[in-house]
Amino acid sequence: MPDVLTREGIRVDRRAADRWDAVRQCGAVLAELGATDDGYALTMLERERSLSTYIGEGVAIPHGTDASRVLVRRTTIAVLQFPLGVDWSGHTVHSCVAIAARGNEHLALLSALALLLMEPGDAARLRSSADPDEIHRLLGSVSGDLAP
Contact, 134 vs 12, CB < 8 A? Predict the structure, then answer.
């Protein structure tokens, strides 16, 4: 399986008016990368309305609904960093790890991300690094977790 995170999928120094704007930006990047069909970004907003994707450590994981998997062309993640922070229902998010996953691949992605965030130093680097190459190295293991 090709890498689920490419350097082109990492965007630093972003600004968002609110969490809804941040989720829209995440959906736009996934579409730009060719990972999703039209309508996937709307399902990401639907997911966010039903259940917050904030997971702690200044990170949110916007993703679509279960039904939206038919709109995913290939499993991909994108990382959008918001240095000024985005209010996420009382929490401040600095990094969004947007997920577009086929089948049940999202479970492996979520597990790998949870393990990464359990390491305070790694979580801090994900929130604060302005270097896309460092972020790519940091999250590189996520792709390996999906290898056959």
Answer: no
Q: What residues does 59 pair with on adjacent strands? A: 56, 95
88 φ, ψ to 5°?
-125, 75
Take residue 133 and report the two structure tokens written for it: 């190459």
pLDDT band at 139 (very low <50, low <70, confident <90, very high): confident
Structure-token pair, residue 62? 């916007």
Q: What DSSP character marks residue 67? A: G
Which domains does the chain carry? Answer: 7-129 (3.40.930.10)
What pTM was computed for the model?
A: 0.90
CA distance 145 to 23: 25
Report, as residue numbers or ranges, the catalytic residues. Answer: 63
Element (H, E) at 31: helix 19-32
* Helix or strand run (H / E) with residue 3: none
Least confident of 4-8, 49-53, 111-115, 132-136: 111-115
